[in-house]
Write a structure and sequence with these properties.
Radius of gyration of chain B: 15 Å
Number of strands of chain B: 5
CATH topology of the largest domain in chain A: Aldehyde Oxidoreductase, domain 4
Radius of gyration of chain A: 27 Å
Largest sheet of chain A: 7 strands, mixed
Shape of chain B: globular
Helix content of chain A: 25-40%
Order of helices and strands of chain B: EEHEEEHHHH
CATH class of the largest domain in chain B: Mainly Alpha
CATH topology of the largest domain in chain B: DNA polymerase, domain 1
Number of domains of chain B: 2
CATH superfamily of the largest domain in chain B: [2Fe-2S]-binding domain
Largest sheet of chain B: 5 strands, mixed
Structural class of chain A: alpha+beta
Distance between the termini of chain A: 70 Å
Oligomer: heterodimer
CATH class of the largest domain in chain A: Alpha Beta
Distance between the termini of chain B: 49 Å
Strand content of chain A: 15-25%
Number of helices of chain B: 5
Strand order of the largest sheet of chain A: 11-12-9-19-16-17-18
CATH superfamily of the largest domain in chain A: Aldehyde oxidase/xanthine dehydrogenase, molybdopterin binding domain
């Protein structure tokens, strides 16, 4: 039973259709009389629209970037509204944080943190149920029957006794005039007809026939194409530009010089690239001209020698450590990583005196609008942002640097201009997953059980920049996720974090964010403890999972499905990992083969997952398959390094991606559950990395404490 | 200079430098945005099109090399027997995620199927390892190719 949800009905606003908004936050100044008025002083955060043609239009607060949100979110609506999924049409939500702010991200209009289903689980089903209730009331009134004798099904209201039926489209105008129910009853899990089924993705056909439109495909009338060179050293400036050769290239229209970048505007990207290659730019490299990765890592290592901010403390680590029989110590290190989404960074902008229009694929469309407005020097309401499908987000499009660049350039251009980054520019001017340095120690008792756990790590806090209010007392919930609130029974635990921002290299969210670093470290170190205790890695973990039965269940399931313990040939090994991040329990076993020359091949991955109630099991499987490939790529190849202030990697030859011939077989086993849904987009990435590292240890006896895998260290001795 | 290209069976005149990569003519000059830009150096396969049925990376194929050949893109690949089967299998198995690489994957897979109606795993590795999928849909791509191959055989048996 849901009580006191406020809903807004403004039937007249959209051609007589039924418009329902809904809210998830506390009501702001809501009064009983306000509910039927368009001017109601409360703030809905998403919209369903039922047009007179019967189509249900869902204005999507979350953007599709491969995770299947354009199917799973409509499933929530369709379930309660009693329509077929195919009847639901989608519109990208316009920028409007009041309407579409993410309740799980402090009201920022953002798609991220694997939380679209979690954030929508209650409010979207409620919105669907409320709309259905009003449609039923409208039909009952028209027929002069008891609403309880009517039933909604397949987009119509039916009255069985008199064999009458009315389609939603025919009822939309009347429904808009019905009182908003004070409460609605949501279906019980046993009544779900859509949730839990492998529904077909709504976005697949267009992605298969080539008609899907991404930001990079935007072609407003008269659009020119630009590409750019930004200062090769972060923080550098343009010193001089010789435009002559570039301007001589056929199709080149204009050179735009900014403080720290130069763009070539042309009729097409071929001419823009040719023009950029012909451009002679001299740079003033600025303060980071000599920056090297080793300098950054050195500062992090140094920081872990001093105390940091306390992220979590339990019991008394010092005395427990003093009483331990065995002490294990280790340091770990993870590198900067680029996103390398396949759709390179791009944004189209048209800046006029009185307004600005932007075409982009963004995970933060309201921030995109604000950034465009600020850069163009225009009020917010003069900026229109058209959001698009994203050709791979992984956190990159939670940033608006690309929008700012496009608007900066567009200010100098007559008409719309599409700014497309080359792959080299995309990799060398990314905002990177931070590198981290970790120092750990643990004390074991005579049975090998951990009685003390001490962990201190240093690195960048993305949240401190991205959402400053979330950074408190020296810690934030992302950087520490996966390092605190562990699944294991660790009675004496102390975790510290030292925020150290690297000079001259911007950091950002990257698929599985904090856990992408922490779970590697924690699950590798737990493996070290098992080895020190001379115990099987699965049995050792299982013994520590008494108070987290869901974690224990996924561990047991994965061990069984992965043939844990079954003998393997030499230099082949299995590694395990367990985690609880993004509100999802997951365990994985990776099976790797290490060649004589040290090359690591991940042959097979088995994953057991308990993500609570599953909305679309096919999407869950797809996301885990995807996240595992993403994580294996990072474990084997991922590393961004700086030399003389410049990123050394540039394209897919120097920043490698896992390919078809290297892709492991992945098996996914889903635990049936009626718990609330957990996040699915990212969990698989953090979980696979330590599983691979632990498998390499099993295969070779070499512990990987630094990523990516160093094949030279894994060479078989002659 | 002005050149005539035959794209999806239609003659198209374009006025760009001879060395302009076909990719940009398709996307920016002709507005056929189904073919995607990923790397610009034939490292990722997102821009794959067919020249006389052979898969090529349009980001490094100058239009001068395409002048007297038939260019086929994702927009028309469904009109070929192999292309139609591949697209059908992609739909049935829900292969795409972000979908950005999929036009290139489909073009590579179609060329493979047209050349080898019963591709082995090794054939699939050889034909498809030039196409990066950052979402990691490789398992479903492999399954999609196998399903399309099976459908082809079933059709032939039935015929």
């Amino acid at each position: 039973m849901i009580s006191r949800r406020q809903f807004l009905c403004t039937g007249a606003a959209l051609g007589g259709g039924l418009l329902i908004g809904f809210r998830t936050g506390p009501s702001i100044g809501a009064s009983p009389g306000a509910e039927s008025a368009a001017s109601a002083p409360f703030v809905p955060n998403a919209f369903i629209r039922i047009a007179s043609d019967g189509h249900v239009v869902l204005t999507m607060p979350y953007v599709e970037m491969g995770q299947g949100t354009y199917t799973s979110i409509p499933m929530l609506i369709a379930e309660e509204l009693e329509v077929d999924l195919k009847q639901v049409r989608l519109e990208h939500a316009p920028p409007n944080e009041k309407l579409y702010g993410n309740p799980l991200l402090g009201g920022i209009q953002a798609t991220g943190n694997s939380n679209a289903v979690r954030a929508s689980w209650q409010p979207l089903r409620q919105a669907g149920a409320t709309a259905r209730t009003m449609l039923v009331s409208a039909a009952a009134k028209r027929w002069n029957v008891d609403p309880a004798s009517c039933r909604a099904q397949s987009g119509e209201v039916r009255h069985a006794q008199t064999a009458r039926r009315l389609k939603y489209g025919e009822l939309a105008a009347d429904a808009a005039r019905q009182p908003v129910p004070k409460s609605v009853v949501l279906k019980r899990p046993g009544e779900f007809r859509l949730i839990g089924t492998p529904a077909k993705r709504l976005d697949t056909p267009a992605k298969v026939n080539g008609t899907a439109v991404y930001g990079i495909d935007a072609r407003p009338r008269g659009v020119k194409v630009a590409t750019l060179a930004q200062s090769p050293v972060f923080g550098g400036r343009v010193k001089s530009v010789d435009e002559a050769a570039a301007k001589a290239v056929k199709g080149v229209r204009q050179i735009v010089r900014l403080d720290d970048a130069v763009a070539v505007v042309a009729d097409h990207m071929g001419a823009a690239k040719k023009g950029l290659a012909a451009l002679v730019v001299e740079w003033d490299d600025g303060p980071h001209a000599k920056l090297d990765t080793s300098e950054i890592v050195g500062a992090l290592e140094q920081a872990t020698l001093n105390s940091g901010a306390v992220a979590q403390n339990a019991g008394n680590v010092d005395s427990a450590m003093a009483g331990a029989v065995t002490k294990v110590e280790a340091t770990y290190q993870v590198p900067f990583l680029a996103h390398a989404a396949l759709e390179p960074m791009n944004c189209t902008a048209h800046v006029r005196k009185d307004g600005c229009e932007v075409w982009v694929g963004s995970q933060v469309v309201a921030r995109a609008q604000a950034a465009a407005a600020k850069t163009a020097g225009l009020p917010l309401d003069k900026v229109v942002v058209h959001n698009h499908l994203i050709g791979g987000g992984f956190g990159r499009r939670l940033e608006v640097d690309g929008v700012i660049r496009a608007v900066e350039i567009a200010k100098h251009v007559e008409g719309p201009v599409k700014v497309v980054w080359t792959r080299e520019e995309d990799i060398q001017h990314d905002m990177y997953r931070p590198c981290f340095f970790d120092r750990l120690s643990a004390g074991l008792d005579e049975k090998g059980t951990p009685v003390a756990w001490h962990h201190r790590f240093a690195g960048s806090s993305v949240l401190a920049r991205w959402a400053p209010p979330t950074f408190n007392n020296g810690v934030d919930p992302d950087t520490t996720e996966g390092a605190i609130d562990l699944v294991y029974a660790l009675p004496n635990l102390h975790v510290e974090y030292a925020r150290v921002e690297p000079p001259g290299i911007p950091t950002a969210f990257w698929r599985s964010v904090g856990p992408s670093h922490n779970v590697f470290v924690i699950e590798s170190f737990v493996d070290e403890l098992a080895a020190a205790a001379k115990q099987d890695p699965v049995a050792y973990r299982r013994a520590l999972l008494g108070r987290t039965p869901r974690a224990k269940a996924v561990l047991e399931l994965v061990a069984e499905k992965a043939d844990w313990g079954k003998p393997l040939p030499p230099r082949v090994g299995r590694g395990v990992s367990v985690q609880h991040v993004f509100a999802t329990y997951m365990a994985q076993v990776a099976e790797v083969e290490v060649s004589k020359d040290g090359a690591v091949r991940v042959r097979r991955v088995v994953c057991a997952v308990d993500c609570g109630t599953v909305v679309n099991p096919d999407t869950v499987e797809a996301q885990i398959q995807s996240a595992i490939i993403f994580g294996v790529t990072a474990a084997l190849y991922g590393e961004i390094t700086l030399k003389d202030g410049r990123v050394e990697q540039a394209n897919f030859d120097t920043y490698q991606m896992l390919r078809m011939n290297e892709a492991p077989a992945v098996e996914v086993h889903i635990v049936q559950s009626r718990e609330p849904p957990g996040g699915m987009g990212e969990a698989g990435t953090s979980c696979i990395v330590p599983a691979v590292a632990n498998a390499v240890y099993a295969a070779t006896g070499k512990r990987l404490r630094k990523l990516p895998v160093d094949t030279a260290a894994l060479k078989q001795p002659a | 200079m002005t050149q005539t290209l035959t794209i999806n069976g239609t003659a198209r005149r374009v006025d760009v430098d001879d060395d302009t990569p076909l990719l940009w003519v398709l996307r920016d000059v002709l507005g056929m945005t189904g073919t995607k830009f990923g790397c610009g150096r034939a490292l990722c396969g997102a821009c794959t099109v067919h020249l006389d049925g052979e898969p090529v990376r349009s980001c490094v194929t100058p239009i001068s090399a395409a002048g007297n050949k038939r260019v086929t893109t994702i927009e028309a690949i469904g009109a070929t027997v192999a292309g139609k089967r591949i697209q059908q299998a992609w739909n049935e198995l829900e292969v795409p995620q972000c979908g950005y690489c999929q036009p290139g994957q489909i073009m590579s897979a179609t060329a493979l199927l047209a050349a080898k109606p019963k591709p082995t795993d090794a054939d699939i590795d050889a034909a498809m390892s030039g196409n990066i999928c950052r979402c990691g849909t490789y398992a479903r791509i492999r399954a999609g190719i196998k399903r399309a191959a099976r459908e082809s055989r079933n059709d032939r048996k039935g015929a």
